[in-house]
Amino acid sequence: MVKRTKTAILISGRGSNMGSLISAALNPAYPAEIALVVSNVPGAAGLARASEFGIATAVVDHKPFGADREAFEKALDRQLKAHGIELVALAGFMRLLTPFFVNAWANRVLNIHPALLPAFKGLGTHERALAEGVKLHGATVHFVSAEMDDGPIIVQGAVPVLDGDTPETLGARVLKVEHRIYPKALELVAGGQARIKGSSVAVNWTADFDEAGAPPVLTWPPA
């Protein structure tokens, strides 16, 4: 039997990427078990979606803590520990984490960002990619550090920027890649195939090598 790593997903809204992670984890051979979904927003749509799959949910509302971000994170930390969580995946969690939480969960928090980091950190990534005239755009799954949209990169997926693209059409193409690479990144980390070495991540792609002996290139459309 595969040893499954108990994983929590943190959301603030509908949890689009949450859905892709839950779908992957429905396979009993997948090395991560989605054991908890937590939102900082009461009534977030993703909570109901998680409940439909029989996944435990919790709300840790940030508003009662005011500007005390660390106090909020300590309450979140207690909730995660109470459920025996080992890994955390951020999926549209609209809170910047303080050094307290990042250090308490060092190398155990994953995030997905809709750009090919280190390019286009922050918001408005699709608009900025179009304004800069780049030919490739995409998404990145990385370990979380104390800096926004920073930390060792686990997996990236790229898409072409097409003539006539709008932020909406480009964003829709990137979202499809996000739904492919986030489950793959969580699989690699939970399965012990991705480990931090210095400022980068060493990935064992052995099981995914193609006939030429190279790791897969995750692009859209898929092969």
Automatic annotation (TrEMBL):
Xref: PROSITE patterns: GART (PS00373)
Raises pKa of active site His (site feature) positions: D149
Active-site feature positions: H113 (proton donor)
Signal peptide range: none
Pathway given in the UniProt record: Purine metabolism; IMP biosynthesis via de novo pathway; N(2)-formyl-N(1)-(5-phospho-D-ribosyl)glycinamide from N(1)-(5-phospho-D-ribosyl)glycinamide (10-formyl THF route): step 1/1
UniProt KW Cell inner membrane keyword: no
Molecular function via GO: phosphoribosylglycinamide formyltransferase activity
Pfam family, one: Formyl_trans_N
Binding residues for (6R)-10-formyltetrahydrofolate: R69, M94, R95, L96, L97, N111
A biological process term (GO) from this entry: 'de novo' IMP biosynthetic process
Bilayer-crossing regions: none
Keywords for this protein: Purine biosynthesis, Transferase
Function: Catalyzes the transfer of a formyl group from 10-formyltetrahydrofolate to 5-phospho-ribosyl-glycinamide (GAR), producing 5-phospho-ribosyl-N-formylglycinamide (FGAR) and tetrahydrofolate.
Identification of the protein by name: Phosphoribosylglycinamide formyltransferase
Annotated organism of origin: Roseibium aquae
Gene expressing this chain: purN
